[in-house]
Amino acid sequence: MLERLIEEAPLFFNYHNLVFIGQAMARTLGMTVIGCSVGFVLGLSIAIIRQSASRVLLPLRIVVIIYVEFFRRIPFLVVLFIVLFVIEPMMPGTSLFGIATVSVCLLSTAFLSEIMRAGLESVPKAQIEAALALNFNALQTLTMVVLPQSWRVILPPAAAFVVMFIKDTSLASQLGVIELTFAGKMLVNRGFSPVLGFGAILVCYFALSYPLSRFAAYLEKRLATS
Amino acid sequence: MNYTFQFSEVLDELPYLLGGAGVTLQIAFVAFWGGAIIGLIGALAKVYGGKASKRIASSYVTILTNTPALVQIFLLYYALPDLGVLLDPLTAVMIGLVLNSGAYLTEILRAGVISVRLSEIEAATTLGMSRLQIVRYVILPHIAKTIYAPLSNFFVWLVLGSSLAALFGVEELTGRAINISTANLRSIETFTVVAGIYILLTVIASTSLAMLGRWMFRVKVRVF
Question: How close does chain B come to A136, measured CA to CA in Å?
Fold first, then answer.
């Protein structure tokens, strides 16, 4: 097997293949970045909605809870299939990358909102009541009292989630989005040894994920509640 | 948009799908307990091991947790035949998931191993507790409090994660859903029903695990 690898290595690492893998890596990264940015914004909104006690928001709160529980309790693969089969007939021109990105956003919103909720809940109720007594309005309470304190609880698990998330995007290969995993499959189908093809892909994922997981570990140490 | 939903064709296949849910749970169980054995060895090596075993354990964890399980199993499934080892899909998925969950469980169990402090055991010995009592009243409550919640979350995560077995042709829940939907062409309905089954599975799993934790270890675990 080793001879085969050595024989194939120069063929495998040619310019064309490297560009191909690079583009695939950019797609993986793109899905992760878009998914997590959308997830952060929407997840924060959902967490805030779930925290609020107002009666007017009650129906919205129920919808949001159902949404979060739904997407946290079904596998990403099933989410991908459902989104594919719903979007495809409604908007026939949508690219596969678009469909994968939508499902990625749906998932990350649900998971990040749970992380944010834990963060918001970590701020003692008495402080919110104190802010109320000082005549802060809801927005002021949020931006000046709750958020500054909840970041240190939110950030470490959020960073760990992003690491998980990079790996989850590998399932999008099943739709035919040419991200890293699918690129690996294509290279192997072109006749390269699986060890070389998938090995290179594993190294790429590692290169994306390792710095981030180190960063997550650093955050966890640094921001540990003192 | 004139689409009429027809769930009847899918609901006819419900026993078949529920059988798939059984396979899903089996995969999750094997992955969990196999991973727990590896995880225990890894955690002990990381905390009490020598320099070499510490290094081996931590590089195992780093490599496995920073790469997707899917690609790991691809590598197992397609590369091992080169070495003359032919795995059937289910075995390949199981081995891959066991190795993968072993890495995560190493980290979870390590936290549990650390949480027991030697001084507490010494204090218990001074109080005249027997070895069994020390395990029952000092060591176990500590470990349970630190690791029970992450462990039960991880099991639920494995139930969901085992769906990637479908990509190798294993007929678990997702795999059977793909089979059905290619036959009856009712894809949305099929996957909605399957999503419902997954929700049911994970809700049952996390509620019963939470109840078990409360009853056996007095650990409070959140279900929702």
Answer: 31
